[in-house]
Amino acid sequence: MINFTKISYKSLLVAVCSLPLYAEPLDGTIQEGGELFKKANCQKCHIVDGTFDKMNEKVKNVNNLASWVSTCDNSLHIGWFPEEQEKVTKYLNETYYKLKK
Ligand code: HEC
Predict the structure, then answer these.
(1) For the chain, what is the domain count?
(2) 47 by DSSP, 3-state: which?
(3) How many angstroms is it from 20 CA to the middle of ligand 1?
(4) Ligand 1 mean position to 5 CA, how many Å?
(5) Is 37 within a domain?
(6) Would 28 be classed as within a structural domain?
(7) Domain annotation covers residue 41
(8) How does pLDDT run across 46-97, given as a tens digit for each residue?
(9) Is the minimum distance from the CB of 40 to ligand 1 under 6 angstroms?
């Protein structure tokens, strides 16, 4: 007789162990965000002494950060797509801001 309880626990374990695989594309996203940031020359104003200059420190959460990325993108006429803005937001958060929400 097959023990079904044992089997489902085993597949659960396999599922949990494969989770890090799904996290991998995120690293690519952050790297792409960094490349977009450099290509758009954001560092001209924002990189001071090798780190991101938050200027007036208006960003308090990820939404603020996303709207500032959009504001600077628009005012400089860079023309990023929404998903490119998202990548840059992720890059800036993972690299400098470390905001939880
Ligand atoms: C010409 C200079 C200049 C360039 C180039 C520039 N920014 Fe900004 N950015 C500013 C200024 C000035 C502020 C602050 C405005 C304020 O506080 O009212 C700002 C604010 C920000 C903030 C919010 C900072 C905080 O923590 O409050 C983010 C994020 C940001 N910019 C992202 C970008 C990105 C991404 C790019 C590249 C597309 C970019 N900026 C290019 C001048 C610039």
Answers:
(1) 1
(2) strand
(3) 33
(4) 55
(5) yes
(6) yes
(7) yes
(8) 999 999 999 999 999 999 999 999 999 999 999 999 999 999 999 999 999 9
(9) yes
